[in-house]
Structures
1.
Amino acid sequence: MSKKRLGRGLDALLNLEENKSEEIIEIKINEIEPNLEQPRKSFDEESLRELAESIKKHGIVQPIIVRKEDDTYRIVAGERRWRAAKMANVDTIKAIVKDLTEQEVLEVALIENLQREDLNPIEEAEAYEKLIREHGLKQEEIAEIVGKSRPAVANSLRLLTLPEEIKRSLIEKKITSGHARALLTLEDPKIQKKVMEEIIKMNLNVRQTEKIVKEYMEYKEKIDKEKEKKIEKKEKDYEIKAIEELLTKILGTKVQLDPKQKKGKIIIEYYSN
């Protein structure tokens, strides 16, 4: 089954469709450097070992894409194959050399990983954030590149606002993106962490988590309204006290206000000789 094309797609970014006859060369493994723009921060060692064994038996079928940089080559796409080839102790690897900008290198690495579903949600969000921060892209432009909706990109970026502990749990697959998005609604980091602990402890699914968050937000709204009423009452009490003191000073005798819902009484004390 073919992968769904993402945005412009790797072929378009690398001009592979127009250059199917592009030269494939053999490059020494030690002349190649990993991609500094690689969104993926971790590689599964067991998976790499399996690929290394396959390379020993069958070689590398698909060439990696590299960019020439001074005396070395920088990987654009295929870092996992390169790592496995090193592990297999091969001397050279098939590659296609492309002339790409820093932005295009990041775009290609991002799309390649998304197509293979290799990125965890935080790595994906960090890659989007880097495209915005370092290359000035807008969310709409990123959405077009990766073939997602603008709200999907925006929701991904919001994950970066979560506390480190929650982001780590997301990376370690203790919770899912759905859980994390539900936690974002809570805003308070302490409450977010507490609910996350319950998700892990009780093995809650996303729907159950959303229900807990909804109930908490309704409870919080009720408490906030009660607090607001108490504050308003205090403010009114201060106003009444100030008016009582002012009238007492003017009339030269003790004055009390007895406020009701829509009307009230002014009680003035007087003394007969």
Note: Residues 1-7, 16-21 have pLDDT under 50 and may be disordered.
2.
Amino acid sequence: RAAATPAPAPAPGRAAGEGPGAADGAGRLVPLAVGFADVELVELQHGPSHELRVLAHAGPPTEMGIAALLDHLGFVLELPRVCTGFRLSYDIQELGQWQLDVIMRIICWSSEPERQAKWQQRCHCWKIVIPSDASLLIAQLTLRVAFMWSPPPCHVYLVTDPASELRPSDTVVCFQPEESATGDAQFMDLLGRLRAQAAGAFADDDARGGQRDEAPISQAAPAKLKKEQEIACVQATDKRPVSELSPVLHLGCVEVRTGYSAERGMGFIVLIGHDAELSETALPVLTGYLDDFVDSPSAARGFSMTYDLRCLRSPSVDMIMRLADWGAEPSRKDKWERLNLECRVVVNAGIRHTLAKGVLTTFFLFCPPVCRTFLLSELDQPEETSTVFEPKAPAVGAPPQARPAPGVREGAAPAAAAPGARTDGNAKPDRALPTPTAGAEDSEWMLLTAYDF
């Protein structure tokens, strides 16, 4: 990859002690370090005369860094040398929530009235570069959803090789601004292709010995068994009033464990899925049991929810819709949003975990989580090695921040800051963000996305 040369920066967003747009003795634009990325304007031999390269580092962006990046983009846009056009290249390690947030912020910023016409005239295209070992289909699916909400202002190419010729092929995906009218159809086509790719990947993974961990709890590894036993015994040491609710419910298709953790000061629900269909008779028993627990003393101060999906058979769409309707009842919805303090989703490591992460990233783009949501591959996996989706109430079009768990510095955008808004005291009135295209809010394809993986 063509990496920008980072300049010594005493503070994020400043190159060599000067502001964005500083030049060296030869008149060349000094590379800019904005904390989460390095930015450099490079002259090209073919195509547009210049390429503005953004090389992202691992770690979340900060408001100061994003503001510096947007200031630098504004400076470059006014340079006489790019009057004939330039290309914006964004080289990232992973297409996750951090990067989606930056992409959406640039889209909204470039669409502001004072610069929209000039940006469309001078910025010929975007090039988003992801690692060669990343799933091009998952990245394509994620960007397709994002662009259904905020269409790109110009052609956007998704590539795994920065030297690739920018024309649609098996390894180069092109998004066009005018494609929003057919976004739903393209999304469903992508979903079908991803399903087929996943089926083949699952078969290969299983053939190499990566089968699902379908052994029951009683046959699990000693460490895992000990952890499960500790969870099951927590309620026995509860100093608070003990309800008459049984701590364990067996329904064949699912095993539910509940209790109260004195150490964490909250109750817990653990749903362990098994390779069996959720029956008509089991559904009301399950929902009734969950209602009873949420109303019990153990959940009065809140509770955590764990979904162990490693052995779960895909339920029917009808069952999913009935569970969704049950959870969407106003009184229950308000109670769960208030008391459900944490959510954990456990899936098998490998390709299944990769797909689950892509699906949750896409899903939370439209439906931000109401509590901290962890994606794990083991029940007792340390939080610092998991993926965390943070709750927040962003401005429309700004996705939630997904970040590595505690121990990594935080840089999530404040909920009150609209995409593209400045936070340096010179903020301008918020501009209305792009509205969803027709059909973008339909729940059917979102349901299919969650259902498949």
Note: The chain has a mean pLDDT of 70.
3.
Amino acid sequence: MPIYQKFSDDNKQQTINYAEDKLKRQKEQENIINFRNSLIPYKQATEQALSAGLGEGYTDNIETCTVYWDKQVNYDIGIPIKGDSMEPEFHYGQTALIKYQSSPDYDGQVCAVDNVSMGNAFIKCVTVEEDGLLLQSLNIEEDQNGERKFPDIKLYWDDNPRIIGKVVAVFTPIEINNIFKKKLGLLRVP
């Protein structure tokens, strides 16, 4: 006679409850492991931003933090976006993944640009012209006077602009709280 059949009805129910609880915990652990394996860490600049507007500060001294996304992309640096001039494609708070290169692949390509003389950086559609770089916004909103809220920006070669690189992807980082980080093994506890 199998051991289970030797139990009283009460002990049989307790055994079933215990087994169901163990199975539930096992599935939760498998889900955590699967989720952890699906998260890709990205290095994002912490004291930098790309303006989707009138310009944000940018320097070559880059400190980073780690943000997470569930897609794998070949990139060099992630930089947060501030502003709404590149909506509807790019939104405030998203991370732009940049692949370093000194010129766009084609006119109108979305790139990160550093206006070295002014200390501003932008995410814009870039066209290389004879006298400099033309930066254009995707957002065509108008103000109350009928003027474009985000007019084109011209950076002349005399101002020493440089293209940081092309935007290869943009995403909203997956938020992971510390309790979940601990379960995933991403948080070091002393």
Note: The CA atoms of residues 52 and 84 lie 5 Å apart.
4.
Amino acid sequence: MKKYLAIAVLGALSFNAAAEDDDNLRPGKSTIAIKWEHKLLDGRTDRPKVEFGHRMRNGFKFGVEQAWQYDRSKSEKEVGFAPEQYELTFKTDYQTRWGDNNEHQAGPVLDYQTKETANSIRFGGYYGYKINSDWQVKVRARYSQHLDRISLKDDPADSYYRDDKNKEMRYDMWLTYRWDNFRFVYNLIHYSKISSYKNDSGVEQHVYSNGDRSLFEHEFTANYRFPHAKKHTVYGKFKLKTEMLKDSHMVENSGYDWYGKRDNAIELGYKYSF
């Protein structure tokens, strides 16, 4: 029921914004992005993604991102496990600007995400400030929780819904520097678990890959917009992850020699704006 309620809310917001935008004859701005993420540790995961987003002139934005996930690491294949997972995310936000040069921006965000093993809702708010023509800073706080979660088994009849639904906060800070046709972005991310679930041995299960209930991550992005074809942009991103320090990352417990290593990733993409 919660899943359908979330979809209904997103639909209502979209309809509302579209109705208000009818009076504006000029369209807003749309973007199509094609992305490819590759995890460097053992070359184990590839995530191709396609995203569409449209910002209306009244400030409302809606979008959808489809992602696929392919595990290709040698260790995964040796144990006969090479899953292909889907991830579909519906994204909405509203943006208002103010100031002599519209240097301030703020608004709420609301997303709905569905995976093979879980459905989630995410909501929060953001604020951004344009310091000058070169520098800009933006912060966001976002809460997310599972609406439902399922444990999949080889025999579908053995699959079951889980009670340990995750709830967490994510805090982002983006610092952007523009130079000519380049844009460089540093993203500091902090995750914090709100929910708690312990197994029969009393060990906390709602922890991150570092074994704690909070962690920091960093992302570095370089964008290039073609000077004579400004609708086209290419970018590269490096995702610096935290060290993996859970017992399950030890080779004697899982067969994977990942303990103390970082599950870093690179992402390459192309964006077309119209």
Note: Helices lie at 2-21, 74-78, 251-254.
